[in-house]
Amino acid sequence: MEDVWSVVLRVGAAWMSLVFALIVLPSALGVSLGISEAYLWVLMKTLEWATIRIEKGVRKPQPQIKTSAANGIIERDETPMEKEIVHPHRVDFEFSDIFYFCRKGFEAIVEDEVTQRFSSEELVSWNLLTRTNVNFHYISLRLTIVWVIGVIVRYCFLLPLRITLAAIGITSMIVGTTIVGQLPNSSVKNYLSEVVHLTCSRILVRALSGTIHYHNKENKPQKGGICVANHTSPIDAIILTNDGCYAMVGQVHGGLMGIIQRATVKACPHVWFERSEVKDRHLVTKRLREHVADKNKLPILIFPEGTCINNTSVMMFKKGSFEIGGTIYPVAIKYDPKFGDAFWNSSKYNIVSYLLRIMTSWAIVCNVWYMPPMVRQEDEDAVQFANRVRSAIAHQGGLTELPWDGGLKRAKVKDTFKEEQQKNFSKMLVRNGSIG
Amino acid sequence: LPCAQDARTPPSPLSFPPPVTSEQIEHLHRRFKQLSQDQLTIRKENFDSIPDLEFNPIRGKIVHAFFDKRNLRQESDGLADEINFEDFLTIMSYFRPIEMNMDEEQLDRFRKEKLKFLFHMYDSDHDGKITLQEYRNVVEELLSGNPHLEKESARSIADGAMMEAASICVGQMGPDQVYEGITFEDFLKMWQGIDIETKMHVRFLNVDTIAHCY
């Protein structure tokens, strides 16, 4: 009995020291040992091989032109209503006028632009994860074996490693920030707080096997500014804090999240709102304005979409963030869906199952583009400014833009939108016809 | 190729109209599951979750068409409460585009089916005739979003169009002749020579699920 315990303890100790030496220490120092890169290279080669096998395995001939599944499955006829509803006989209304609306209705039923943004992006080729095996059929024994090996690697090796790292990361964040928080306010405290935040972020990113490519680092958000990014998942914040320190904005939660929030706010001036305060927009704007006015404070991080979108498009930005004033530093984040799906479908998965899914994916690979700062022009109002920033982010990240509100995930379309089409059609009739 | 899906695989393609490909059926099945929220049937309320559809002035009629038993090729009349995936496919099949390899007879049947679908949309009381009142209803619905257009104007537009239809079907009417309504045969007559097949279809893109190497 004793022997078993001592063996277990020794293995445990060896494991922890390996983890510490290979992962935690480099995170603290900000260096990379190249393990992630090697892992990703092996993964890429395997996935390429798998793709070739799948292509060989399919017997029917493939046409050379492929279309991206993210852009829809039906051919939309974009002829505007005016062109299509033509009345050659000077009659005011014909039976066939109903065709246009009928067809549009059917197209919407088969597929609508908005709902598909709230489900995960479809992959064009299988990435050997069971969860993405929707379209793909059984191909060959070799592929299945590789898939089984993949399952074993992911669940038995990667998952425990990642959970360990996540635990270390979160604990050190709480402990570190609490310690730093005891110090009196000074530049030393700020420096130490930055070190703690950065180290813990790096550990957490490694906990997800994250590989992040930062572009245009010269545009990194400065103090006193507001950093604005598109939102795909809760880990967006970790992705960004991996490279710099920000003041987070959010609602106070209970549980583990609440503990983290309370600890970190002692070390660094994050802006946490009580639930009751969130409803009061003026209070929120006022607090944020005060924060931004102080040029020594870290830049605020805000996600103006308000909800998680599936990373193929950018939805409407809420104008609140753009009314605060100050310089906006837009950031575009684009995840590579091949290695793991980072999108959090909050109506389908709760946070724990989401984290488990992330931790059993291959890796999280993403690109982050820092963009040149923008300010509101004199003749722009907040909404126009928000749209301008949104276009820039969508353009940089290669995402499409949708004018819809992310809140449509849960709510219905406003009535004002509905009547638009009817107004247009009747305007047309009145113009053509002889109604006074 | 055997399918790696679960037991709720969609049923085999329909014999009439011309069969849809299995990939399209899979797409539609996924869409069905999305709309039904993973239930086996869809109800009218499920269509409320489509933002694009809210725009459409004849939204009510389109949704109605999905539950209309005449469109579902069921013997009885009236409205179904809920439809399963097979019914969904049946309604979708009215919007199939024309295939290259159809012969005269098939084309004619195809056209008739589409026109019948349209007829049912107008004929809301299921009596086999489009009366003046039913026609007025459709026009009013289409024009309902415009607050500046009075009900009277909508009515006169409908009346004018109905007279036009009557003149095609019945010829010149006497002053005391009452026009009951447009029957399906008259409806077909109105559409003779007019191309509807290209207006009333939804074409699927050829999306292949296996693709290039990275």
UniProtKB/TrEMBL annotation, chain A:
Highest taxon of source: Eukaryota
What compartments host this protein? Endoplasmic reticulum membrane
Residue ranges constituting the Phospholipid/glycerol acyltransferase domain according to the UniProt record = 225-336
One Pfam family named in its UniProt record: Acyltransferase
Extract one GO BP annotation from the record: phospholipid biosynthetic process
What the entry lists under InterPro entries is as follows:
LPCAT1-like, Plipid/glycerol_acylTrfase
Keywords per UniProt: Acyltransferase, Endoplasmic reticulum, Lipid biosynthesis, Lipid metabolism, Membrane, Phospholipid biosynthesis, Phospholipid metabolism, Transferase, Transmembrane, Transmembrane helix
A single cellular component GO annotation: endoplasmic reticulum membrane
Q: In which pathway does it act?
A: Glycerolipid metabolism; triacylglycerol biosynthesis; Phospholipid metabolism; CDP-diacylglycerol biosynthesis; CDP-diacylglycerol from sn-glycerol 3-phosphate: step 1/3; Lipid metabolism
* A molecular function (GO) term: glycerol-3-phosphate O-acyltransferase activity
Task: Give the SMART domains listed for this entry.
Answer: PlsC
Q: How does it sit in the membrane?
A: Multi-pass membrane protein
UniProt KW Acyltransferase keyword:
yes
Q: Which residues cross the membrane?
A: 12-35, 139-157
* Family designation: Belongs to the 1-acyl-sn-glycerol-3-phosphate acyltransferase family.
User: Per its record, how is this protein called by name?
Assistant: GPAT3 acyltransferase
Q: Which gene encodes it?
A: Gpat3_0
From TrEMBL, chain B:
| PANTHER family for this protein | CALCINEURIN B HOMOLOGOUS PROTEIN 3
Q: Which residues form the EF-hand domain?
A: 110-145
Query: What is the protein named?
Result: Calcineurin B homologous protein 3
Gene Ontology BP, a term = cell differentiation
Q: In terms of domain of life, where is this protein from? A: Eukaryota
* Keywords for the protein's UniProt record, in alphabetical order: Calcium, Cell membrane, Cell projection, Cytoplasm, Differentiation, Lipoprotein, Membrane, Metal-binding, Myristate, Nucleus, Protein kinase inhibitor
The UniProt entry lists membrane topology as: Lipid-anchor
Q: Which GO terms describe its molecular function?
A: calcium ion binding; protein kinase inhibitor activity
Keyword Lipoprotein applies: yes
As for family, the record states: Belongs to the calcineurin regulatory subunit family. CHP subfamily.
Give positions of region: Disordered: 1-20
Give an example GO cellular component term for this record.
Answer: cytoplasm
Q: Which Pfam families match?
A: EF-hand_1
Where this protein primarily resides, as one coarse class? Answer: other
Q: Indicate, by first and last residue, each region the UniProt record lists as having compositional bias (Pro residues).
A: 10-20
Where, subcellularly, is it found?
A: Cell projection, Lamellipodium; Cell projection, Ruffle membrane; Cytoplasm; Membrane
